[in-house]
Amino acid sequence: MRDVVRQELVARQLEEQIAGRFAVGRRLRVLDVGMGRGAQALRLARAGHQVTGVEQDAAMLASAREALAGEPEGIRERMRVVEGDGRDTGVHFLPGSFDVVLCHGVLMNVEEPDALLAGLARMLAPGGLLSLLVPNGDARAMRAGLSGDWAGALAGFETGPYRLRKLTATLAGIGAPLHTWYGVRVFTDTAAAEAAVPDDPETLLLVEERAGRTDPYRGVAALLHLCGYRG
User: Fold this and answer.
1) Neighbours of 117 (CB within 10 A)
2) CATH number at residue 7
3) CA-CA distance, 19 to 194, in Å (whole number)?
4) Cβ–Cβ contacts within 10 Å for residue 169, how many?
5) 228 and 130 in contact (C-beta within 8 Å)?
6) Residue 227, helix vs strand vs coil
7) How far apart are CA 92 and CA 24, in angstroms?
8) What tens-digit pLDDT sequence spans the chain (231 residues)?
9) Which of 36, 109, 141, 190 has the fewest other C-beta atoms within 10 Å?
10) Which interval of the chain is the signal sequence (predicted)?
11) Is the whole-model pTM more than 0.85?
């Protein structure tokens, strides 16, 4: 359930940002760094965009390529999968090569995330969208506390990475200032890993979608989805 909520909400939020920023029907150049199994990359390719996915994990690459192989020819032609490290985008691509750059669930696994972000910002064409998905450092105590893990909740109050204020400053510093942010998984983050998706998930998704854009709920979401635009 948690992964379904994450993928669906991020997809809807991306669609909202793209529709509000770019001309209707424009085919965008998209870079997905740390694409994983390619869920968001495939959605965007199906929507008609030209997508390049970068991934270094062999198992994830195999899953992404398998998923792509099952798509119609037109979609396969619009999506390219590159084996590589997201910190090496400058090796593979020229600055300003993309209209949209995604970096979802990657920063927490990188030793120098600010350097990675600066490199991703350089990949953006003027006016381009940078989409980040990170753990919400301002809500680290929430899940542990709701689960009765009091020691974990206490530790969660300590200063941690990926707080909204710091990320806002970082995005401004790399020339892609924050435009909009969302919370992802406000209510469902405490669901068990094996929890099944409801037969009719739309009401659940609508609740999470609304909470993710509404204060104070979005401030305690498990994940932050930040959207910045290059000036």
Assistant:
1) 23
2) 3.40.50.150
3) 34
4) 12
5) yes
6) strand
7) 29
8) 999 999 999 999 999 999 999 999 999 999 999 999 999 999 999 999 999 999 999 999 999 999 999 999 999 999 999 999 888 898 889 999 999 999 999 999 998 899 999 999 999 999 999 999 999 999 989 988 998 999 999 999 886 678 999 999 999 999 999 999 999 999 999 888 788 988 889 999 999 999 999 999 999 999 999 999 998
9) 109
10) none
11) yes
β pairing state of 223-229 and 29-33: unpaired
Q: How far apart are CA 73 and CA 85, in angstroms?
A: 27
What single string gives the DSSP state of each residue in 7-60? Answer: HHHHHHHHHHHHHHHS-TT---EEEEET-TT-HHHHHHHHTT-EEEEEE--HHH
The residue among 112, 39, 24, 12 whose CA lies nearest residue 120 is 112
Question: Residue for token digits 């968001």?
Answer: 40
CB distance 161 to 112 below 8 Å: no
Q: What single DSSP character describes residue 196?
A: P
Pairing state of beta strands 124-135 and 79-83? unpaired
Total count of domains within the chain: 1
Tokens in use for 172?
A: 């401004």
Question: Which of 226, 225, 216 shows the shortest CA–CA distance to 5?
Answer: 225
Please state whether the peptide bond connecting residue 161 to the residue before it is cis, i.e. omega within 30 degrees of 0: no
Q: Are 66 and 94 in contact (CB under 8 A)?
A: no
Mark out the alpha helices in 87-180 (DSSP H runs): 89-92, 113-123, 140-146, 150-156, 164-173
Q: Which two tokens stand for residue 126?
A: 């003027």
For residue 23, the enclosing domain spans 1-230
In the block, tokens 């359930």 appear at 1
